[in-house]
Amino acid sequence: MAPRLQLEKAAWKWAETVKPEDITHEHIELAYRIAVPACKRGTCRRNCKGNPNCLVGIGEQSWLGEIDENAFHSIDDPNSERRDKNTFVGLTNLGATCYVNTFLQVWFHNLDLRRALYLFQNSRAEGHNTDSGELKDYEPRTICEHLQYLFALLQNSNRRYIDPSGLVKALGLDTGQQQDAQEFSKLFLSLLEDTLSKQKDPNLQNVIQQQFCGQFSYVTVCNKCGRESPLPSRFYELELNIQGHKNLTECVTEFLKEEKLEGDNRYYCESCQSKQNATRRIKLQSLPRTLNFQLMRFVFDRQSGHKKKLNTFISFPEVLDMGPFLEGKEEECTYELSAVLIHRGVSAYSGHYIAHVRDAHTNDWYKFNDEEIEKMEGKKLQLGIEEDIAETAKSQTRKPKCSKGYHCSRNAYMLVYKRQTEEIEQTETIIEVPAFLQKLVDQDNKKFEEWCNEMADMRKQSVDKGKAKHEEVKELYELLPTEDGLSYEFVPLEWLKKWLDDSTSIKEIDNSQFLCSHGKLHPDKIGDVKRISSKAADLLFSRYGGVSRLGQSSLCRDCVTQRCRVIRLKNQLNEDYREVMNLVKSSLKSDESGFWIGKASLRSWRQLALDQLEEDEEETKHNNSKVNGEKSSRDNEDRDGEEMKNFNEDILCYHGGLNILENDRRVVSAEVWNKLRMYFPRAPEFTQNNEACQQCMRLEREGKENEALNRMMANEQKSSLLNLFQEKNRPTLQKWPQETDVLYIVPHYFVDEWRKFIRRPAKSNPVSNVGNSLLLCPHGGFMFTYDSMLNDAEKDSLLWPAEWEVISKMFLVDQAISICQIRDKTQDNDLCRECREGFIFQQQRDMREYAQATVYVRKVIDKKRESAPEFSVSGSDVEDEREEPKMDGEKDPDFSQSEVGAKRQKLNESASLSMAPVTAASKSGIRRSTRHRKLRGEKALIVSANQTLKELKIQIMHAFSVAPFDQNLSIDGRCLTDDSATLGSLGVIPESIICLKADEPIADYAAMDDVYQGKCCSCKLNFSYQYVSFPTPISAGGFLCSVFFCLFFLPSLYA
To answer: Which part of the chain is the Peptidase C19 ubiquitin carboxyl-terminal hydrolase domain (predicted)?
Structure first.
């Protein structure tokens, strides 16, 4: 089938030769593609969206082929949850409880432990027992009760796996966090032993000891007198070191090897009454029936400070003879391997636990992996697959060859051996579940069977319903294609797809989104609908309902006619464009009257015509798009009307008349204008004789007059206030002028705006008033003190009395503010203390909440070696920062801050209005730069208020090569010592100068050697350190030496 664009082009090809008034019904059917042949199955890979008759590839494949019952439901077969015959029951992993499941399976297969646990007296269960054979409202509470019930389910449950959440909850375990498996084994057996010891039955009291408990002694022998000192002890498992060993025998031998006690570790002998050299070893006295070997794979790594897993291969036998390791007792010491616990993974903090357990009845090996249980082939243990898991390229090592009867593993962390005895009778291996526990199991099996039946019924109902629906859909689909000459209707393509995909949840048929403004099917929407037979449409609407049925009469003649007109105009546009551009080049005749047209419109009229045609085409679209959630472009154009550009609107003024700017328009002939009117019938029309807008001309004349007045005003104000404009001969507070006692204040903002007007009177608005109220608080008080006016000169400006007199005449002044030098200390000024305190508090808070500010760190050198300070001034700053000759008694303020403060205090005593010390720059009349003057040995750092002192010290270490613990920082004489405090809380503000005094390097080589050995005499602690070499200049000659810094890593200081 032809592509969609070719179908659309063929549907409207007739419009190039047929006029809109000559359109027939055949043309309308061509536009709606009624006669396009329908596609056959197998010819289309996907549905032809441009062909309304194509009903292939819309989801019918699943209904026309063979029936698949699984497609009619999402319910798994309940029998997959049923336990197979002669298999064991698995345990659900609750998140990270695989280590619990492995131990439960191992203990369940310990027949003696299971038999003894069934004998546990459960009085609560007996109290719930009824004649009906059911235990109503019984729930296990204690750990033994949960373990009893769990073992009974593992033995006789019909489920493939059971949920151990009751026992896990009773133990208080976190199901989302993996615990230490070896530690869990110890604690659980200890808890179980404590609970069973309270039972009356002596066999039950000692069952844990009988099964798992052995005895050994720590025997210490004095080398001098030969006295033996045994210390007996019990064990439930032997913890064996595997590092450096290859097999289990080597591990046990190291566990029992002799240890020498010498030197500081000598043994105190009671016979000799003194410390003597001795030997110590472990002697095995007795072994339990079940011998557990814990292989210490998880060890502490001193370098990293964390546990790590040892992936060492260890071989172990199927039959183990412990006789050579026992001391002096002749008893059966042959053990047979019964379980191997495996840890998958390379990390000690993650991984997965599984168990390989030998069945005591059949001697078959099974792998227990939570819910999954796998029987090993034959009757031999197979660990090869487990060793390939979590193997990385770095840890790939060749597996050693194992002798017959031996196994080798790099992931086994616990080995369980069972003592060999004489042939056990078959009756002893059969363990009966107590009656009350069997009742609980039967109740659970009953619930499981009910659930299976319920799932099977639901599955069957879904299948039956699906089959019936399959026949229904198949029958309806065969009725969809329409035949020539018969009635038809249109339905949405997406609805048909959903109907064939999931017919049970289909909504009603809705054709409203495909309607045009005339209430019929829009031609542009023909690709979103399909044409079906009226018989099929009646069945679909009767079963599923719907609105806006579209039959044969829904083909819109008005939309087709409008589209035909647009197509013809688009085809004619290129020819008209060439003709218009040729006509424009020719000049008008003397007696011919032309029309005004905008130059910008003339340049882009073809694109504007295309936009206009598309706009007309858009008007034919459906008028109820908002109901269906679609926004038409016409709505967007109405909303964004200001952004639209209509033809010839560039010669319109704000009043709707002809623009006065003749350079933006030109005259064209009537022939050109008539051709353009075909495309822009609503364009504004102005003949050559039309006059420009009178209102715009009047405004232009007024603007020129105002511009002339502004220039005259600016010249007058500039001549009257020339010094203020040029910033010459300005009064200052540092040096009060002798010729006057009064100065006036105006906002600095007023002066800036006034200067802008003087410089560009034609482009700026004149300043009419002086807003001094900005400098006053709501209570009418002045907001600034003498010091604040010195520090922040950007808020106000000082005026001479003569300048104030001129300003008072030329501008409107809301409030006059003057200042004078007061010699009488008893006289108060007009400062509002309440508002001033709030203003100061706000300033202080701003200084404590800065970010990315600059502070200066100045390194202080010992006075004995201190040289004269030299300023580091760049070439661009030399002129502004030239050092002026100082008067007698005057010193550089960078070095004599305390003296400056003393001078300021002295002046305060002589006058109530504080006078600052007169600097050299002010005395000579030269303005001094306000930028910070950097000294030699001083560096700028970027800091924030929420940064800690510790972080600042690290920055200083990188800048000055001084270790943090050698830094002594101070600001304004205050020492900064709290490393955890923020800079804002310590009073460090932007532009602060922080003094750095570094501790002297160690000159005593003996003391330096002590430091290298990690000893600190001041704190009496040992530290770990690293040697870091910093090249440090130590003389003016440029000689460099490597100074070793001992960097101590203290968690409480510089982690």
So the answer is: 89-417
Rounded Cα gap, residues 89 and 434, in angstroms: 19
Q: Tell me the three state secondary structure of residue 213.
A: coil
Q: Are 342 and 409 in contact (CB under 8 A)?
A: yes
Angstrom distance (rounded) from CA 450 to CA 455: 9
Distance CA 493, CA 498 (A): 9
Q: At what angle do helices 143-156 and 98-108 cross, to 10 degrees?
A: 70
Tell me how far apart the alpha carbons of residues 866 and 969 are, in angstroms, rounded to a whole number: 18
Identify the pLDDT of residue 953.
93
Which phi and psi angles does 167 have, rounded to 5°?
-65, -40
Phi/psi at 31 (5° precision): -65, -35
| Nearest to 363, CA basis, from 346, 383, 381 | 381
Residue 305 tokens read as: 């400070």
Return the bridge partners of 667, or none. Answer: 596
What's the CA gap between 823 and 913, in Å, rounded? Answer: 8
Q: With H, G, I as helix, E, B as strand and everything else as coil, classify residue 679.
A: helix
H or E element that contains 774: none
Q: What is the mean pLDDT of residues 239-248?
A: 90
831 pLDDT band (50/70/90 cuts)?
Answer: low
DSSP per-residue letters across 940-977: EEEE-TT-BHHHHHHHHHHHH---GGGEEEEETTEEE-
Per annotation, catalytic residue among 352, 356, 470, 622: 352
Residue type (1 letter), 596: W
Q: Which residues contact 15 (CB under 8 A, 6 or more apart)?
A: 27, 563, 564, 567, 568
Helix (H) or strand (E) holding 235: strand 228-235
How far the first Cα of the chain sits from its last, in Å, is: 73
Catalytic pick among 27, 48, 54, 98? 98
Would you give the DSSP letter of residue 658? B
Considering only CA atoms, which of 480, 479, 472, 533 is closest in space to residue 506?
472
Which long-range contacts link 448-451 to residues 24+ away (Cβ below 8 Å)?
448/81, 448/157, 448/158, 448/159, 449/158, 451/78
Instruction: Enter the pTM of the model.
Output: 0.50
Give yes or no: 932 in active site: no
749-759 burial code (b ≥16 CB/10 A, e <16): ebbeebbebbe
Tokens found for residue 1042: 């490597």
- Summarised one tens digit per residue, pLDDT across range 47-92 is 888 889 888 888 777 777 666 666 666 677 788 888 888 889 999 9
Token output for 869: 């300070």
**CA of residue 5 relative to chain centroid, distance:** 45
pLDDT in tens, 546-600: 888 999 899 999 889 888 888 888 788 878 888 888 888 888 877 778 888 888 8
**Distance in angstroms (rounded) separating the CA atoms of residues 512 and 370:** 57
- For residues 765 and 844, what is the distance between their CA atoms, to the nearest angstrom? 37
The phi and psi torsions of 233 (rounded to 5 degrees) equal -155, 155
pLDDT in tens, 193-208: 888 888 888 878 888 8
Q: Give every CB contact of residue 591 below 8 A, 6+ residues apart in sequence.
A: none
Q: Is 516 left (phi over 0), alpha (psi -120 to 50) or beta?
A: beta
CA distances from 192 to 35, 113, 527 (A): 86, 11, 75
Output the DSSP codes for 246-295. Answer: -BHHHHHHHHH--EEE-GGG-EEETTTTEEE-EEEEEEEEE--SEEEEEE
Residue 524 and residue 621 in contact, taking contact as beta carbons nearer than 8 Å: yes
Q: Which residues, 6+ apart, have CB-to-CB distance to 458 below 8 Å?
A: 73, 75
Q: What are phi and psi of 801, to 5 degrees?
A: -55, -40
The C-alpha atoms of residue 715 and residue 762 are separated, in whole angstroms, by: 12
Mean pLDDT of the chain: 77
Catalytic residue check, 352: yes
List all residues 6 or more positions away from 863 whose beta carbon is below 8 Å from its beta carbon.
none
Residue 1008 is which amino acid? M
